[in-house]
Specification:
This protein is mainly beta and 211 residues long. The protein has no helices and 15 strands.
């Protein structure tokens, strides 16, 4: 007698074999979610560092959303922080009630999530639109909590540093990728934050010692 093609046991058939299905448990499963929160493309997401059910999201039309997925029908949207695409955001390590955001308008903002009040820490386009050849856009962002520095990179290959204690830009811009290429990724080593990894549209990933 041929063995069963499922269990490979002789004498068994697919009609007589007993099937068992193990229960699959998802830890911390979310039982509800917002179906449509933004009107345009969502560009970035960030979980709250100390409140697990709070999520922040940014979109193409500069909106910053704050929502609690335990109360899915409640939402807070701030639409006046930036003037165009919100590309990235990071929580302030010293104050989880504020968030830093980088935008294609060339600014870094620091926003109080409770009030929506925002301040601009850096503006790379103080004279407004002067054409695509000079317009600087900020993409990825990272924070070195040990040094209290916000790091952000633009579409021309430059890295900028902002002191998170004084909220003032420090030093001169540093060219970290091919001039004129977009820097799309920044990440500090979690064990040794002075090591910075970057990647860009010049097809390179680079490792830096920011000391």
């Amino acid at each position: 007698m041929k063995p069963c093609f499922l269990c490979k046991m002789p004498g068994q058939t697919t009609m007589t074999i007993t099937r068992f299905k193990a229960a699959y448990v998802i830890p911390d499963q979310v039982h509800c979610a917002a179906i449509r929160y933004h009107s345009r493309r969502v560009t970035c997401l960030e979980f709250h560092p100390t409140n697990n059910n709070i999520l922040l999201s940014g979109d193409k039309v500069r909106q910053l959303g704050v929502w609690d997925f335990a109360k899915v029908h409640e939402k807070t949207v701030y639409g006046n922080i930036h003037s165009c695409i919100l590309n990235n955001m990071r929580f302030n390590p010293a104050n989880d009630g504020t968030i830093y955001a980088a935008s294609s308008d060339g600014t870094i903002s620091c926003t109080d999530l409770e009030t929506g009040m925002s301040s601009s820490l850096m503006n790379l386009n103080p004279d407004g639109w002067q054409g695509p050849s000079t317009w600087r856009m900020l993409y990825d962002m990272e924070i070195n909590s040990e040094k209290g520095v916000v790091l952000v990179a633009d579409n021309f290959g430059f890295l900028y540093l902002v002191d998170s204690r004084s909220n003032i830009q420090t030093g001169e811009p540093i060219l970290i990728h091919k001039k004129g290429s977009k820097v799309v990724g920044l990440h500090c080593n979690p064990v040794q934050p002075d090591l910075l990894l970057s990647c860009g549209n010049d097809h390179f990933a680079r490792l830096w010692d920011i000391r």
